[in-house]
Protein 1
Amino acid sequence: MRIGVLTSGGDCPGLNAVIRGAVLKGTAVHGQEFLGIRDGWRGLVEGDVHPLTRHDVRGLSKQGGTVLGTSRTNPFDGPHGGPENIRATMDRLGMDAVIAIGGEGTLAAAKRLTDAGLNIVGVPKTIDNDLDATDYSFGFDTAVEIATEAIDRLRTTGDSHRRCMVVEVMGRHVGWIALHSGMAAGAHAILMPEQPQSIDQIVKWVESANNRGRAPIVVVSEGFTLDTMETAHSEKGLDAFNRPRLGGIADVLAPIIEERTGIETRATVLGHIQRGGVPSAYDRVLATRLGMAAIDSAVAEQWGTMIALRGTELVHVPFQEALGGLKTVPQDRYDEAAILFG
Ligand code: F6P
């Protein structure tokens, strides 16, 4: 069997470990051959591939990014896109199946292609940890480590200047990175999309920390919004919240907090630093296991399934179920963290 491997969507620490795990198991145990598909679906649509041998993947598990490249190309677009063209390209390349490593968009495209008869297995990837079908996704642990270290560093400079530090972490739709890094680093407030808050509440947490002589640390997910009542009746200073902006939410919150509390406040947006560099040991192991499990799926011809982590076990779930929804931070996890605020 000759298997193509692609990485699609935003990059994520651990992608190379998945590729390595798949190629090493596939070649050693099943005598399979591999083709690396360049830049996600683009490479599959255009037939842009190269051989991927055991030699090529040696030492890859600690390397950040993806050696295959990635893109957000939609495989249904363009003159060579769509299932019939892709099937013809795969036939020409002698490619029997594809391992698609990606997030929700990638898996949705993989589902449509599988429904049209192509042989695809999926491996979930998101640093946001927001795929409901899997308990954890690789990349998340690394992102939390990076964010936690950054917050620890911001604390010492904040303490020195008696400043409030607002730290923006990734998480467009969910607050997992904010929750875990904020808890780990002892934040005085954690703000996330699932829990809109008022400025009054944020100010209370900041002032409470400040009154105890601590430099207040506010961790905020990029997708956080103020509670709707407050945004609708925006008071002085909140107009900025509703304006189109270049910076992130931290850049909006910092001046409002400073104005309301009189505490000098600085904003830091961590951005893509959270996705770069070497994966954590946990992510390397999880990613390697996922790559190997994808080979098991291919051998069993379980096309149209994604590997998911349930507890410590890897299971195969149909794409339909894998695309079942966002894994948001549950109320009890937020309430538990909130006991530590202020
Ligand atoms: O979904 C992963 C993620 O890292 C989000 O947390 C973030 O909003 C987004 O990707 C950034 O995407 P891009 O790399 O395209 O700017």
Note: The longest strand covers residues 2-7.
Protein 2
Amino acid sequence: RNSFETKAVKQNIQSVACLQPKVQASFKVAVLGAAGGIGQPLSLLVKMSPLVSDLHLYDIANVKGVAADLSHCNTPSEVLAFTGPEQLADALKGVDVVVIPAGVPRKPGMTRDDLFNINAGIVKTLVEAVADNCPDAFIHIISNPVNSTVPIAAEVLKQRGVYNPKKLFGVTTLDVVRANTFVAQKKNLKLIDVDVPVIGGHAGITILPLLSRTKPSVSFSNEEIEELTVRIQNAGTEVVEAKAGAGSATLSMAYAAARFVESSLRALDGDSDVYECSFVQSELTEVPFFASRIKLGKKGIEAFVNSDMQGLTDYESKGLEALKSELKASIEKGIAFANKQA
Ligand code: NAD
Ligand code: LMR
């Protein structure tokens, strides 16, 4: 049995299911974009964490009502609302984990890169405030296109002299959540046991599930590998089309982001067995930012799980080579944007 993701899932389920806190709540979390489709359910799930003492909700609109509503839940954290640029600094002071789902979502027919023109500027502005007010926090970037917004965040932090590559994360947990769900369904496995690492990036072919690394060990036909890989790569679009203009994944994303927050808090709390996939600065390949499984600790990334990358199948190796040029171009686009604006 794997000790990576299964443990994380079980612990998340336990901590969310039993609302009686068994651990000391002591961490401060800020959600930027907290009144949005992801922000609201994500804030609810974070409010249920026994590890959180303070939950700061920031948005440019409608956040007071969300905070008033959430603050009535009898879980440990105190919920505070912050609205507008003038309150952003206060939202961030003393925060341990900052989660950023601010920005516009896709509509049918759009790619994630089509969101760049609006979301790049939003992420840049918010990360500037993070750099000035809580430079030591774990930073979780959800806003798309993740393949570009994470490099933008890195450049902004460098410009302010506070970049710590061990603490900047592109949230790709939803790709893992989807891979686990689809594989469990296809192979009739118990969901809680299934763990599929997903590497690369977070758009189209840059999303590369390593089905050969599935735990528990399971064999797939070539047709199953092709079908599952394509479904995982297109799962975001599947939701965008089903929502027919009303946005993209919000509930499954909130679930996935809450899991990544909980894993980060457990790592900060001293748990020495926390593993997640995330899009981070990386030397695993020649692409400077790359999603892979990492070990989290008190200081952020403690180690890269290099073994996932060894002995890839031909299908996975071809997928890896095919994604590199698109991923590099998206990264360079983000870096150029951040430096042009500087
Ligand atoms: P949404 O439109 O429902 O919510 C976005 C929220 O951001 C709104 O409340 C809006 O007021 C707020 N906002 C906009 N500009 C802001 C600013 N400057 N400061 C603070 N808040 C601001 O959108 P959503 O469905 O919640 O999606 C948000 C983003 O997450 C999109 O870019 C989407 O593509 C992305 N997303 C990423 C993943 C992933 O796996 N990483 C999954 C799903 C969605
Ligand atoms: C997802 O994977 O669901 C998100 O990146 C949102 C999108 O636009 O697909």
Note: Confidence is low (pLDDT under 50) at residues 1-6, 8-21.
Protein 3
Amino acid sequence: VIDIGKLYAQTGMFTYDPGFTSTASTESKITYIDGDQGVLLYRGYPIDELAEHGDFLETCYLLLYGDLPNASQKAEFDYRVTRHTMVHEQMSRFFNGFRRDAHPMSIMVACVGALAAFYHDSIDINDPLQRQIASIRMIAKMPTIAAMAYKYSIGQPFVYPKNDLDYCSNFLRMCFSVPAEEYKVNPVLARALDRIFILHADHEQNASTSTVRLAGSSGANPFGCIAAGIACLWGPAHGGANEAALKMLGEIGRVENIPKFVARAKDKNDPFRLMGFGHRVYKNYDPRAKIMQKTAHEVLTELGIKDDPLLEVAVELERIALHDSYFIEKKLYPNIDFYSGITLKAMGFPVAMFTVLFAVARTVGWIAQWKEMIDDPDQKIGRPRQLYTGSPFRDYTSIGDR
Ligand code: ACO
């Protein structure tokens, strides 16, 4: 019989940390989170200042290169992203192979991975210039692919990028413009989407980012690594949580029903949880949630959606929970997902697109982390260990003797 304790003693120090709750897998200079204080910094800048004063492409530049761009750097970066928004025409035919009712995230996984086949000139990860080009290509093409996935799902023709528009205006137009009518981008909605993208751009070593790093640690091409990140993000415990929060607000339905649901959330024998509350890292108010709440109000006001029952329920639920001893003691505050579903729904996005939008925004974070890893001379292939709990040694028995 194998002595597992002895085996691990022979291999040196060994830690068992399911879910990596206390093991740092890497050093990073990109994003800082202080969950107790409710602080989120990108390259040292507080998220609320970036969301208030900056724009998404500026944030992309910051995450990728470490500093905010000056005016000419910004203009050049915007220009480069804009020049790469088109996808190969052959790719538009690729879409026809999917069922119309396919989940858009499945299309995203496939099409982003397939970029490696269309742009195989930029899969040489050892060439810094090719790494740059691949990064710009992905940031530029993600909205185009996402909008194509949406248009395909509703049976409408694809809308090509219009490059005199800013990043989010262009995306809204590609999603919502139809040939029969002239589409005018609403600047309030474009600004709100831009802010939502800033809030989702990076969040240090979350599950999808760790997936991208792990995939990239083998030297895999960047498009394949980002496709792996998209697949991970799709899970309901990660990118799918805003959908769950929206569904729950719909189930609560009216302010009068809130106490019943709060009581259920507190009942140890009931598996029900208040969706959009609590976070593995934030044990204080998620700083992104505050900005998201403000954005939700702005979007609903702009669209003339007065007295939206979902928003009314959300605001009151938040008020009640923040004064309830159960939530106070357990440090359960609204997270970013609490208000984002309401906002995206009001903007006209179907629920299936929520996680796709998250993927579009998070792409820059994935790429920045991937680049940081490739640039690190000490980086090793990711290879977690395991604590073996299976059968001890045994001899093979022929099938007739089993
Ligand atoms: N409603 C009611 N009780 C809750 C909630 C909630 N939303 N979240 C946690 N609790 C309680 C748990 O029952 C547990 O109670 P106990 O100590 O009596 O057993 C305690 O708070 C700690 O909960 P854990 O699950 O251990 O906390 P963890 O940090 O692992 O989980 C998580 C964080 C998964 C986000 C959790 O708060 C949750 O399930 N929230 C609802 C889902 C959600 O909103 N997810 C989005 C996360 S944000 C993002 O992914 C971008």
Note: The mean pLDDT is 92.
